Model the fold of this input.
Amino acid sequence: MSGPGEQPAAWGSGFFVAPGWVLTCAHVLRREEGGIGMGGGGTGVQEVGLVFDGRTAVGEVRYALHCPEDGVDIAVIRAYDAEPHVFLPLSEDTGDPGDQILFFGHSRETGPLRPISIVGTIGGTVAATRGERANEQYLLDGLTVPRGISGGPVYHRARAEVIGIVTHQANDRRGGLASSLLQLRGLFLEGAGDLYHLLWQAHDHAHYTHHFRPAQTDGALRGMESWTTVRTRATPEHERPEGSLGHARRTELRGLLAAMEPPEHPRSVIAAVEAVRGDWVEPDTTPHLWRDGLELLYDVRGRTTLEATLLYSVAVAEQSALESPGPRGRLLAWYTATAREDGLLDQLHGPREALRAWGAAVRDERTDTELVPLVRLEVYELYYRADAGHSRAVHYGWTLSGTDGDESDTGFRDHDERGVLREDLAEGLLLPLGRAFDWSDRPGRPAALEVRLPIGLFDLPVDRWPVAGRDPLGAQRPVTVRWAERPGPGEPSAGQQSEDSPRRAHERRWKGIADGPLRLYALHGEDGAPRATITLSELREADPKAVPALFCPAEGPVSEEILLRVVSAGHGIAVWNRDAAWRYGWREFGRRLGGALASVPRPDALPAALHRLRAGVYHGDSAAYWCKDLALLYDPASAAEAPPEEEYLWEPL
Done:
């Protein structure tokens, strides 16, 4: 790896993983002098020089991320003009202490730049476990790690595949660190999921072609044995468990899966696996590729791994779009040929037909649905604790979950019960929220975010958090607030509820506002300040279509008390502005807000309308600036709630 130029200076090592695709360390590209200056992470187009086999090429840095606390130090380079070259097999399966490894690269420590390889064993492992960036790091204890070898591959000798990248040299050069390839999954959290797909597609297609279509392989590779052959020799067929998939078949299947359109969503992979297994699956890491499903086909009741894998190929093919018949047809042809070769075709006929019907239902549902997926975040007070510099500071926990928009659980769950300070909530939630959206978003249908908060946190600026390194959340998707303390539809009550109870008032008001249009109901005096004298009765008697509005932050004794009266009076929609300066420009703010509310035909269209306004703010629309700090309480009454006369009664024990 070097800077572009006639006489390149070596910065570090790297390796090809497919024709024209290179992996290395991000820090290799961040030399203090002369480097390309990538920041902590990014996808900006920058060039770097590559030297390999005595030849040179120019590579485009497609991605670089250096996050040492997560064990992440990786860069992806695309070299479009590289001549034919050897590429290595990758694996996200991690190694264990004592496994024999080989790592190599280039170094000048012993004179001129020359290739160096080190043979040794994994001395131990270190886990970095912050959310989906969870990554395994390998200790290279007692091994000499020359300077310049950073970015080189860690090759697992028994499995004949690359399991990591050398990242660090110990101060005494005796030992160092390497990171596993699980760190590649961080691309999804940084908004580079398409690059992750392209990289693995290129990798799996290249190894498939090299083994099964050698005539289509260029240059010196044509005369070299494939890595599939090397792996088969390392693990002979007679040592393979009965009923499992051999290396050649796995390479072929991965190549065919790589030719399919990528999964539209992790649930697509999970659904295919569950259709085969007949039960629920909870993977340890989010499956982003069809190949990921192959790792979830172990211990299937009543089926060998080979049978489950054959049926999985059918499940993938059957839920794919019929408009792309080529890859789908080749995958089904592989199933038929392999099942016939192993005498399983008749045995699997029934399950095959069941999967065909299942796939048709999946395609119909995908076409017909207009539901918006939903991610729910609830933040709640845990306890008071005296911390250094924080006298009896409140700590907060949180939970995350997801639905498909019709209350069908997507299977995503995350939580933190340890508790963090309010100012640390954003940092602790950026990665989990990124994973939740990655799990829940559908093509053309980004999941909405519902944030359930106590009134004391109503001004938490969740819509301004830059999740996944992209625009603020409010510009990415609808973001709304709900009152965490509002009684839910399934909560038992102590006897008959009063018609004036918050729950009954909420049901009545939501029915009154359901058909729109919405009308602004200003909760301020002539100076734009909140009216502390506004009463609960006044709020209960307000126009059924009224939307209470505060032109100042929710925080503060007066505003919090008013908002508590608003929700207690049953209002399911309210707005306020977190920018205190708007208190002095409330007339203009009220005019713009009133117009925005009147333009919404129904209350359920309000979150999407506010999302469009917020997106306009962050994409240069000067007419939308007024809503930059607008917060929306959107708290609909559930259609599933029991009628007023049906109450839960506790029977005596």
